[in-house]
Amino acid sequence: RQGVYANAKLKKNLEWEEQQLQIALKKNDIDEIHVENSKDYEFVFDTEAMIDFTNDGDDLLKDEESEYENELLENINKEQERLLDIQQGRKSLPVYQYRSQLLQAIKDHQVLIVVGETGSGKTTQLPQYLVEDGYTKNGTLQIAVTQPRRVAATSVAARVADEMGVVLGKEVGYSIRFEDKTTPNTTILKYMTDGMLLREFLSDPELKNYSCIMIDEAHERTLATDILLGLLKDILLHRKDLKLIISSATMNASKFSKFFYDCPIFNVPGRRFPVDIHYTVQPEANYLHAAITTIFQIHTTQPLPGDILVFLTGQEEIESTKERIEEIAHKLGSRVPEMLVTPIYANLPQEQQQKIFEKTPEGCRKIVLATNIAETSLTINGIKYVVDPGFVKENSYVPTTGMTQLLTVACSKASVDQRAGRAGRVGPGKCFRLFTKWSYYHELEATPKPEIIRTNISSIVLLLLSLGITDLINFPLLDKPSIPSLSKSLEILYVLGALNSKGSITRLGRLMCQFPCEPEFAKVIYTAAYNETANGVLEQCITIVSMLHETTSLFVGNSRDSLKSIVGETTSDHLLYLKIYDEWKNSNYSKMWCKDHKVQFKTLSRVRDIRNQLWKFCDKMGLVSMNEKALKELVDPTQSMEIKIIKCFISGFPMNIAKLGTSGYKTVSTKNSSGLEVTIHPSSVVFQQQKENAKKPSKYILYQQLMLTTKEFARVCMPIIKESWLSEMVPQIFKPNNEFN
Ligand code: CDP
Ligand code: MG
């Protein structure tokens, strides 16, 4: 036998060479390869040491065939093993032991609260038990399970379809905004966001299609969940056959019970291992910095296996931290074990979401960078260490200014305790809190604030009014919104034309309610088709609105600047988005185009999807034909497009207008709200224009979003060129000559 001698040289990316060597090994019956510098496992295949192959075709064919057969057999075996594993896994979950007791309790009571440790099987198992127990009446009735988050709804549906051995979208499906993966007459188990079930009340106020409703993750207390509980409380009286299950992590269960006339609470004892809690000795000035240091500290000192879960506040933070970690890991090279960094946040494309559930390869450590989505709604196996900076991004609405801000705030005690618990699922774990013990005991609130008291409730008020619920003060709620918040929402709805001066819902209001987007966006779209001086721009406005739903994940890294070359100068962020989309459309939705211009293909594809759905909806509602009529009557349809778009947005977002004063921009003040000083964010086209061209700043701007960091920043802006458009579009608050009423 002949040995092959390959010179080992240090060089990167040698997959091809290695493959060649492997082939050489197999085919030539070579039993050994000597590698110089054997401690460097990377080596090149020296061309001088090339091996001559003899090639008899027959052999190759036979080999390939049998290899294929073997592979097939292996795959079948693997799949069978996997399915068996799944079934055994189901039985090993804590809820399984209580299966019959749970089903009995559900039979005996119309409303049941189920409380259990995260990961005990509430979300994936309970609905399956209901199916097995015949609650779908041979597939004629459905079971709905609501989730506060889109990611949870889709990933859990996929998991359950897998467990039941059915195709996702058939018997088991999900429904989230802009994406309906269910089949009428086939789907019996439907995972959905709480907002989607809320919308179903519009078409079916008694929820006749359902035999059971499970309001999952109720402790999250999202606005939609709170309203659902109120509405359900009412219909349970007429529909005695409807079962309601409220499931929740351990917080706040008695409050739910009281709300539903002291209904029983079923406690599923969980299994949980002890978790050591570590605090920092001093407050950390930069929590991201501290988090990265802690990750590497754990990685270099703690044994494998043992994955790390890190709680961060949002997508941008997660993506930049991921880059930073990978950079450092790369520099450390083979001195530390391999690291696999996997992000998880609401906007992450679904294929990538599934990655966090994949088993960590041996000799490797998985670092999961998550938003508080991993606090209770998703369970990731294998986590042993939790790094918790103790922050969360939260909406905060101030009715006196009418502003919603996305703020990074300290978590509640209940939240950080939940987070710590994630480390003790597979065995004893450790939690590293990046704040002091003193802070935990003296600074953190006990529980998180329910969304209803910290958000703009106008869309919900509109929904309730259109359902005929006019006595808003007495509508049953776990926590009531404040009176200023309620009156502000009525004011907004009046300004948008959804309510008349008497406070009753208008035809436009009913239409807005059916739109699959917020009332403000609905108004923009409506104006684009109907308003005499602004119509004919329906298509453009739908594109912009669709883009605005996905702006956070549009650009790859900090690639914004490179776009100028393709789209040229634009006067507003809205027009920039429009141009990006249209250019992409002109490229025939090409992937290459996105790559060349550093725009996320996945995001644009989602925008395309949203756009199609909005378009279909507008077609159904007659808006498309109105728009076409308007276009026919125009002499030159392109001429005033820009002006019309501005007008449409004024009519939809009259509260988001700021006026230039002596000390910068200040937002509109109305009867119920005072103005607020804002600065245009440096990422905005309007900011750059005003800077680069030393252009006189326009007297008014309209913005889509406020963000408080060092200052109050207005993001996604457009200049309002002419003052008279304000009173023309929104006479309710703007009067000619007397700008703000
Ligand atoms: O709802 P709860 O937190 O009580 O538990 P669950 O979400 O039903 O999860 C039960 C088990 O299913 C956990 O051990 C998860 O790891 C597993 N699971 C999974 O492997 N993949 C998913 N997409 C969802 C759950
Ligand atoms: Mg769950």
UniProtKB/TrEMBL annotation:
It catalyses: ATP + H2O = ADP + phosphate + H(+). The chain holds residues 159 to 899 of 899 of the full protein. Residues 103-269 form the Helicase ATP-binding domain. It is found in: Nucleus. One of its GO terms (cellular component) is catalytic step 2 spliceosome. Its EC number is 3.6.4.13. Residues 294-468 form the Helicase C-terminal domain. The keyword Plastid does not apply. It is an enzyme of class 3 (hydrolase). The keyword Zinc does not apply. This is RNA helicase. GO terms for molecular function: ATP binding; hydrolase activity; RNA binding; RNA helicase activity. It comes from Vanderwaltozyma polyspora (strain ATCC 22028 / DSM 70294 / BCRC 21397 / CBS 2163 / NBRC 10782 / NRRL Y-8283 / UCD 57-17). Keywords: ATP-binding, Coiled coil, Hydrolase, mRNA processing, mRNA splicing, Nucleotide-binding, Nucleus. One of its GO terms (biological process) is generation of catalytic spliceosome for first transesterification step.
